[in-house]
C-alpha cells in the first residue's frame, strides 16, 4: 500500500489481554497518546475472552491476579471465574480511557521493519499502519495446539479445542471424549460430568493436583476492601509474599517438593477409593516439573460412574471410535481437545520480519531468546510482553507483565532522550549473555528434572519459565541499559537514492 495511505502512530500494541491493555494504560500514564491497540477479535480480554468452557477459572488468587494500579475490591470469590476476570478487563479498559485506541477485528497479518525509515510497517485485516515502536502482547496462550491424529477427519461428531468451546452443543446424554489432562481439562471434566451421558478422559501423563481452596468473598470483606483499600493491598502482599518464599523450592531445591507430593497424594486418596484408579492417576515425576494444578472437584468427578479414565494418549480415530496408544477403544459423540497452546512456536513470530529480512520465527528456530524477556536481536523497537523465559510456575503473571511495562516505559524515555529519529536494537552479545545466564540457572530447577512439559521447546530447552522470584525480575527490568543496545539512526543517503545514482552512473 502507498505510504500516504498508512496511518502513522508512535506505538502499535498487538493484543488486548492483560499484557496489551497494561501496555496501553502505561503509555497513557507516561503521557503517550499516539498509539493503537490492534486486536484480532471483536472485544478485549485475550485468553479470558477466548476460554469460555464450563468451569473456566483462574488458579491464582483473585487479589493477586489484577493490576496493582487497578485493584478490584469486589472480587466475588477467592479464585475468580472467567466471567469475572473478563468483566474486570472490560472495566479497566473503560476506566483508563483505552476504548478510543482500540482497533477491533484488526488481526495483524504482517510486521516488517523498514531499515531506511526506522519504523515498522504493520499490515492488519482492517487497515495498514506504520509505527515507531511495536509492543507484541499477543500472548503465549492465544493459539490452540491440536495434535494431528490419524482418522480425525472421519469423526462424525463435534470436534473443538477447549479455547474454542462450541456452546451450540447440547451435552445432555452425549458421550464426550476429553483429550489431555492440563489446567483446562481438569476444569472441564467436573464442569460437564453432571450433564454428559459419559465422559472419557484420555490421559497421556497424570498431573499433580492440589486442593483449590476457593470460597466466596464475604460482603464484609468486600466492604472493608472498598472503604479501606490498604486492607486489599495487605491481602495482596501476603499472597505475593507466600509465593515468593516458595520459589527456591522450584529453582534451587526440588528435593523439598516431596512434602508437597505427599499433600497431593493425600488429596487424591480422599476422593479416589479404587487403588487401581489411584495407581493410574499417580505421576512418576517430581511435582512442579509440569504445571501444578489446583482442583477440589477433579478427583471426585473421576470417581463418578459415568467417567472413564484411559491412561494413554489418543492415537487414532476410526469413525466414532477413539483408539488410545495402548489399544483401548472408546465411543464418542464429541471430542474436546484440552491440549494446550502454541507456546514455544507462537504464530505471531512467523509474521514479524526484522532487519535483513529475517523473520522472528527464523531467528528463534534454535529456541526463543530475548534480552530480559523483551527484546530480540535484529528486531529494533520491538518489545514482547510475556516473552521468552518470563513465565511463572507458582505466582501471578500480572507481576511479570507490570515489570515489563516498567521496561517499556523506560525504553520510550530512552528514545526521547536520544532525540530525533532513532531505534534501539538489542545487541546479539547482550541477548546471548542473558540467555546463557538464564539457562545456566535453569539447570537446577524442578522444571528440568526430566518430565515432558509445554515449558520445553522442540530442542528440549526451557524457554518459557523465569528461574527466579518476581521481585528479582522487577529489578532486572527496572530500566533499559543502553550498553545492551545498538542505537540506530536513519542512513544519511537513502538506499533507494544510492541505487538510482549507481544505475545512472553505469549508463
TrEMBL record:
Gene3D superfamilies: FAD/NAD(P)-binding domain (3.50.50.60). InterPro entries: FAD-bind_Monooxygenase_sf, FAD/NAD-bd_sf. Keywords: Oxidoreductase. The keyword Oxidoreductase applies. One of its GO terms (molecular function) is oxidoreductase activity. Its EC number is 1.14.13.-. This is NAD(P)/FAD-dependent oxidoreductase. It comes from Streptomyces roseoverticillatus.
